[in-house]
Specification:
Elements (H helix, E strand, L loop, with lengths): L7 E6 L22 H13 L4 E4 L21 H8 L7 E7 L5 H14 L4 E6 L4 H6 L8 H20 L5 E4 L4 E4 L12 E4 L4 H10 L2 E4 L4 H17 L8 E6 L2 E2 L3 H13 L7 H9 L27 H14 L3 H10 L9 E2 L1 H13 L5 E4 L6 H16 L12 H5 L4 H6 L1
Parallel strand pairs: 1-2, 1-12, 2-3, 3-4, 4-7, 7-8, 8-9, 9-12, 10-11
Antiparallel strand pairs: 5-6
Helix pairs in contact: 3-5, 5-6, 6-7, 9-11, 12-13
């Protein structure tokens, strides 16, 4: 099993990158966002950097023009893409997203187990509860299920997944509040004991779910103190649930801009900023996301945090709502600047360091040694230039400091992460 002191590093794959204007940069390839060979190249670059895993998000509704979501950001079905990537890689973990609200646990267990077999035990699944009534209508529902019920269903969903995977082809009988399952998977046993469960929700319900089931969490914190609070809370929940704290890898998101000098890093950042097409619509997009009419708000005034919706009854992403509220209060910037910043990185809210490989490594080390991270979920602003910069410049600095592996010593995703195999847990 890998050294527990080493960082875990995941690459968050997304189209041409996480800067909203990356598609306009001459070094980008927006015409290739549905090209399997393009993703093979990106994943092999991450494997060259000895990353633990790559992650493909999913979007269950196609972004409409003016929605603030870039159509070039999203790949095809994550598990279809990852199955295509698998035979072109040897070590790196492959994590895709699936919804517990709009899927059946037996079908998901079978799909993920298939990728796990094809990849020799490198599969993981990021389980989400989805957001919004627009998604619900696509599946024949009038409204999206309320927050607490979604997470109740998700907990039972994961219970069924684990039962099916652990049964190793033997029949499973489950009769609960949300699912009745009677049968066995046609795939017997996982090369890694069981595919890895990943989660990202930071609401109270999301944290509770992570404490019960998650083996990796994609976290979102803008500074070390906030990251350490979340880290300690998640680890405490894991221990309270009877697992060792090391059976959960907490991976905060980071959007790094890397240059051989600080001036070059700032030039890379500035180039992308200059390519933003500012149509003045980011305030409207923020209002649409939050269900607010911001048309009469002063763009140069404070963010109207008091008007943000309450968590109770909110049909959007509760974790994101909580982060938006906290970030607005922490930053204290104008509504215009806040809205523009929110959508600069395709709507993600993560820490964004700009600097040399040594400066980026310094910040990563500070988070890691400061008790705020077991590693990082890297969201490069632009593929492939910034991915290569991180792999070829930042990773060697981390290796010289003894913070990251210099070779793959394990073959499965679970073992890369240092997570206990379920058969060992049952024998304990």
């Amino acid at each position: 099993m890998s050294d527990q002191r080493h960082m875990r590093i995941n690459l968050n794959l997304r189209g041409v990158g996480f800067h909203t204007a990356a598609w306009r940069h001459p070094d980008s390839a927006p015409h290739r966002v549905h090209d399997l060979d393009y993703y093979v190249e990106l994943v092999r670059a991450a494997e060259r950097g000895l990353f633990d895993s790559v992650f493909l998000a999913d979007m269950m509704t196609f972004p409409q023009s003016g929605s603030g979501q870039n159509e070039l950001a999203w790949p095809l079905d994550p598990f279809t893409m990852l199955a295509g990537v698998a035979p072109h890689t040897e070590h790196i973990g492959l994590i895709g997203t699936l919804s517990t609200t709009y899927n059946d646990p037996y079908a998901v267990a079978r799909k993920v187990a298939a990728l796990d077999q094809l990849s020799g035990g490198r599969a993981g699944v990021n389980l989400v509860t989805s957001t919004g009534d627009e998604v619900a209508r696509q599946f024949g529902w009038d409204r999206h299920t309320e927050h607490e019920l979604r997470y109740e269903r998700a907990g039972e969903f994961i219970t069924v997944l684990n039962a099916l995977w652990d049964a190793a082809g033997e029949p499973v009988e489950h009769h609960g509040n949300h699912f009745d399952v009677s049968g066995a998977l046609d795939i017997a046993g996982s090369p890694q004991g069981r595919p890895v469960i990943v989660q990202a929700g930071a609401s109270e319900s999301g944290r509770a779910l992570a404490g019960r089931f998650a083996e990796a969490v994609f976290a979102g914190s803008s500074d070390i103190p906030a990251g350490a609070l979340l880290y300690d809370d998640l680890k405490a929940r894991v221990v309270a649930g009877g697992r060792p704290s090391t059976d959960l890898a907490v991976l905060p998101g980071v959007v790094p801009y890397v240059g051989s000098t600080e001036a070059e890093a700032r030039r890379v950042y500035g180039e992308l900023e200059e390519l933003i097409l500012d149509d003045g619509g980011n305030i409207a997009r923020l209002g649409q996301e939050l269900g607010l009419d911001l048309g009469a708000a002063d763009p140069d005034g404070p963010v109207p945090v008091d008007d943000f919706p309450a968590v109770e009854g909110y049909q959007g992403g509760v974790t994101r709502l909580v982060r938006l509220r906290a970030w607005a209060l922490e930053e204290g910037v104008s509504l215009r600047r806040f809205a523009n910043t929110v959508y600069r990185s395709l709507g993600v809210i993560h820490w964004t360091p700009v600097g040399t490989p040594e400066q980026i490594a310094d910040e990563l080390e500070s988070w890691f040694r400061g008790g705020a991270a077991d590693g990082f979920n890297v969201l490069v602003p632009q593929h492939t230039r910034q991915l290569d910069a991180f792999v070829d410049q930042v990773v060697p600095v981390l290796q010289r400091r003894g913070l990251f592996r210099t070779e793959y010593a394990t073959t499965t995703l679970r073992d890369h992460l240092g997570i206990t195999r379920p058969n060992l847990a049952r024998a304990a």
